[in-house]
Amino acid sequence: MSRSRAVAVVGILAGLAANYWLLEGLLADRTDAAGGWVSDLGARSESTGWIFDLLDAASGVLLLAFALLVRPLLAGLSPTLRRGSLALIVAGACAVLDGAFPLSCAESLPGPCQLSYDAVDVVHVAETFVAIAATIAAFTLLAAGLIAEPDPRLVRLGYATAVAGVLWALCNALMGASYLVDPFEDVRGIFHRGSQLVLGLWLIALALGIARFVASSEPGGRKRPP
Q1: Buried-exposed string 87-104: b where 16+ CB fall within 10 A, e elsewhere
Q2: CA-to-CA distance for 24 and 55, rounded, in angstroms?
Q3: CB atoms within 10 A of CB 105
Q4: Is the dihedral of CA 87, 16, 203, 7 positive or negative?
Q5: 8-state DSSP, 36
Q6: Most exposed among 67, 148, 154, 172, judged by the fewest C-beta atoms under 10 Å?
Q7: Tens of pLDDT, residues 19-69
Q8: Residues sharing a CB contact under 8 Å with residue 176, sequence separation 6 or more, in sequence order
Q9: pLDDT 10s digits, 56-66
């Protein structure tokens, strides 16, 4: 398989897997798509939690694999893209940890339950903060690096990355506001799922954009002038 095809395939799979929550209506024993966190689907208090933990970890593995595939392709273009691809690797590693260290209870779902704040909970919470920082860094650095490139295809991909980054950060800001503003508490699940949808669509767009760029430089590929 060529590098361009590998990037496209793995990137598309990573984008789709990031939205494993779409299966909650079919697989979860309890769900609240509007007010519940996606992480609650895999909580240890849920009988079907292990299914979503596996899906979560699998999505992280695919994201990590995609980041490792694109890093050598972007690192040689500029230091900014090299740092951005590294941030994407960190985000992928955090996604793997997210599935490997599930919360002890699904607090936002109906029923009496409180986090035990054991070692697994602490790792999950810490990983979440690192993942948010790494993802914001990836959006910012990749957008800036791509926009600075001379190839118009990469410039367009950079602007698309910037828009996706703003939407993703906005969703996360509104998720955080749910702890401060009561009305947002009932819809925080929508913002959480919205952020995953933005991430997934961006990964697919990024994969296809980089794949087309790489394909043009492969033997037999048609080069498009800037």
Answers
A1: bbbbbbbbbbbbbbbbbb
A2: 11
A3: 20
A4: positive
A5: S
A6: 148
A7: 999 999 999 988 999 989 999 999 999 999 999 999 999 999 999 999 999
A8: none
A9: 999 999 999 99
Which residue is associated with the tokens 């794949």?
A: 211
Structure-block tokens of residue 93: 């590693």
- Sequence length of the chain is 226
Burial class (CB in 10 A: 0-12, 13-18, 19+), 28: buried
- Specify the pTM: 0.92
For the record, the structure tokens of 190 come out as 């929508």
Q: How many whole angstroms separate alpha carbon 12 and alpha carbon 61? A: 13
CA 203 to chain centre: 8
- 181's tokens: 């503003």
Q: Using one digit for the tens of pLDDT, what is the confidence trace for 99-153?
A: 999 999 998 887 778 889 999 999 999 999 999 999 999 999 999 999 999 999 9
Q: Which residue has the tokens 């996604």?
A: 95
Q: Classify residue 72 by burial, with Cβ atoms within 10 Å: 0-12, 13-18, 19+.
A: exposed
User: Contact 187/194 with Cβ under 8 angstroms?
Assistant: no
CB 36 within 8 A of CB 45: no
Q: Which two tokens stand for residue 106?
A: 């699904």
